[in-house]
Write a structure and sequence with these properties.
Elements (H helix, E strand, L loop, with lengths): L4 E3 L3 E4 L8 E9 L7 E6 L4 E5 L9 E8 L5 E11 L5 E10 L2
Parallel strand pairs: 2-8
Antiparallel strand pairs: 1-3, 3-6, 4-7, 5-6, 7-8
């Protein structure tokens, strides 16, 4: 069964990212449909970005958090994407973490 989802903030900027230091960002998803929201998998654009999430289905009207740990491995601007695979019509949700890393 298909459901719908709302993302509170699909793009988050880390304001004080430092080289080789881990920051944790939290994305909040709300199940706005009438069926359970099932997050099947989450993939990150690189190994420096690690998503963590609750594997249980989310009831209609409930929220879930996706925590993303980012450990920059180079200084300068970065933009990392995290793709959430779920049972929504579009199939995926795109989340973005960005920052400018100082040495």
């Amino acid at each position: 069964p298909i459901t719908t989802v709302e993302v509170e903030q699909a793009e988050i900027e880390i304001t004080n990212a430092k080289l080789h230091e881990t920051s944790t960002i939290t994305f909040v998803l709300i199940n706005t449909g009438s069926n359970l929201l099932q997050i099947n998998d989450i993939s990150a654009s690189c190994g420096c970005t690690i998503p963590e999430w609750d594997k249980k289905p989310i009831k209609p009207g409930d929220k879930t958090e996706i925590k993303v740990k980012v450990t920059p491995d180079a200084s300068g601007y970065f933009r990392k994407s995290v793709t959430v695979f779920s049972n929504i019509k579009e199939g995926t949700i795109s989340l973005v973490v960005k920052s400018t890393v100082k040495e």
